[in-house]
Design brief:
The protein is built from 15 helices and 8 strands. The protein has helices at about 65-70, 75-80, 90-105, 110-140, 145-165, 185-210, 210-215, 225-230, 235-240, 245-250, 270-295, 345-350, 355-360, 365-375, 380, and strands at about 25-30, 40-45, 50-55, 170-175, 175, 315-320, 325-335, 340-345. A 3-stranded antiparallel sheet has the order 1-2-3. Strand 4 (about 170-175) and strand 5 (about 175) form a beta hairpin.
Length: about 375
């Protein structure tokens, strides 16, 4: 047979101009980075200053809270939930107590429900104040952190007078409340709301029209409503995308159906809109606190519940509107003194899953702003 003549292979494509034979640069942001709101490691894939992708590496703060629940009684485990989102310990305790109360099928007195609402809304304001101060500090504004901590101190004083704690506020007990309100409780709560109404004007004057703030937040970290639903994102991040979803309205609990308040929303789903939504949420929380204080009923503060808590076999899931989004507790009882299983649906963990989507196409400096605008606490992410 004659020799087969093979055509020469085509020449390879001309290589692109690269730096050190690489088109992309992979760097670590964290876990020691001060702008990651805890021990978070973010692996960034960059093309120059442009973010091509972001991968979150978590678990540096993992404490096995859900597993601990299986080895504690229902009452013994209650203080552990305060240590998850330690900025919103009151909300953590409320969700857990409601889940166990659902298993027990116990009725909570109206006074206890009203006090729960008051403390939960003040806690929401305190959480948003910490978020605003640290978020602005991340971007480079140092003044707001001093102002926000100044007002947050007044909220912590109310918690301290009520139950003796300021940060990991163990305010509630299964069945209602452990403590009756102090003598100046109503007066202190109303004074705090009046203070916040005035100070919000100061925050708006400082930031809302500030061209540096606007340039660092407008059009940054956009997450539309469809993407929010795909990722399971809730809370202010979802409402800033135009979705009017708030569990206090959609699935009322603790008597929220009795209070008149609005659900703040925005349209663009960017960092600036999330800022505006949270600012308006502070106003709405003040409205709720005023109504609850003015209509605070007399009566018992704890339902009919035994000293030994032993729910019948079954399971319950309860979710509430925490400051960062939907906080859910799934509790399984086998009829013993300890939960058979307990799982938490933490908003920080779920919302953090959308970071990659929000960061793509942004600059490295924008990543810090986007992490801040999600408002995460790593104690809740890792649990």
């Amino acid at each position: 047979m004659p020799d087969t003549i093979l055509a020469p292979p085509p020449p390879p494509p001309a290589p692109e101009a690269t730096l050190l034979d690489s088109n992309e640069l992979v760097i670590n942001m964290g876990p020691q980075h001060p702008s990651t709101h805890g021990v978070l490691r973010v692996i960034l894939k960059l093309d120059g200053e442009t973010v091509l992708g972001a991968e979150c590496v978590i678990g540096y703060l993992h404490r096995g809270v859900e597993k601990i629940a299986e080895n504690r009684t229902y009452q013994q485990f209650a203080p552990y939930v305060d240590r998850m989102d330690y900025v919103a310990a009151v909300s953590n305790g409320l969700g857990y107590c409601m889940a166990v109360e659902k298993l027990l099928d116990v009725e909570i007195p109206e006074r206890a429900q009203a006090v729960r609402v008051i403390l939960a809304e003040i806690n929401r304001i305190a959480s948003h104040l910490l978020w605003l101060g640290t978020h602005a500090l991340d971007i480079g504004a140092i003044t707001p952190v001093f102002l926000c901590f100044r007002e947050r101190e007044e909220a912590l004083k109310i918690f301290e007078k009520y139950c003796g704690a300021r940060l990991t506020t163990h305010a509630f007990r299964i069945g209602g409340l452990q403590y009756e309100t102090h003598d100046t409780f109503e007066k202190d709560c109303l004074a705090f709301c009046d203070l916040m109404d005035e100070k919000l004007k100061e925050y708006h004057a400082l930031l809302t029209g500030n061209r540096i703030w606007v340039n660092r937040t407008k059009g940054i970290g956009i997450l539309n409503a469809a993407d929010c639903k795909d990722y399971g994102v809730t809370g202010p991040v979802l409402r800033a995308a135009g979705e009017k979803w708030d569990i206090r309205k959609a699935q009322p609990y603790s008597g929220y159906e009795k209070y008149d308040f609005d659900i703040p929303t925005a349209e663009n789903g960017d960092t600036f809109d999330r800022y505006m939504v949270r600012m308006e949420e502070v106003t709405q929380s003040c409205r709720i606190v005023r109504q609850a204080v003015e209509g605070l009923p007399a009566g018992p503060i704890k339902g009919k519940i035994g000293k030994v808590i032993k729910p019948p076999p079954g399971e319950a899931y309860v979710s509430i509107e925490a400051p960062k989004g939907e906080l859910g507790y799934y509790v399984v009882s086998d009829g013993s003194l300890n939960p058979y299983r307990l799982r938490v649906r933490p908003p920080s963990f779920v919302n953090l899953g959308a970071l990659d989507k929000m960061c793509r196409g942004s600059l490295v400096a924008d990543v810090v702003a986007i992490i801040g605008t999600i408002d995460i606490v790593l104690g809740e992410v890792d649990r």
